[in-house]
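Troubleshooting: if your tokenizer reports a length mismatch, compare your output against this known-good record of 197 residues.
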Amino acid sequence: MKTFAQFIAEAERSYDPDVIGRSQIHTTSSSGRVGSDRRKSQLTTQLKQHKGQKPKVKAIGGGKTAPAKPYKKRSDVGTQRQTSTRVQQPTKERGSAALSAKEAQKKAYLERKARERGAKTKSATQLLTKKTTKAVDPKYKPAKASGYTRAERQSLTRKGEKKLRDLTLAATGKKKESELKHPITHKERARRAKEKK
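Known-good structure output:
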């Protein structure tokens, strides 16, 4: 008589690998991952792109980008998470949420009155229908990464604010930004916010 392990090993050999790839049959990987690995391969992120797959890049400064670091493995890889840790468990006894006869009568009365007033109440089928998500515009193109780091972007923004402030002060004939009705620079906005408190 065969053991269970022998039976499974024999069954895996008899399956066509193409069928296994398309089906819901998954084996755990060498890293212990449960299910299929849906991450982008490092080959695609460093050398080439598959159709419809953008490489993961990060800004390195000076308007340049470079391939991002490889993904880190999760600490709980290979372990099945228990349902009790993911789903809210009942806190009361089963059936305790049922309404008493008097409460059910009151609820029905209130619903009837609401319908008479013209308030729209959703039926069970309406409540259970899935919301339709808006389709993405086929002409949409994602914004190209600037390649500047956060500090560089901030520096450019501040320089632009100062230039705009100087031009505004020259045009209005005022000496300080605090004399202007609307603040321009980040520093002045923060100062006015602090004064309000």
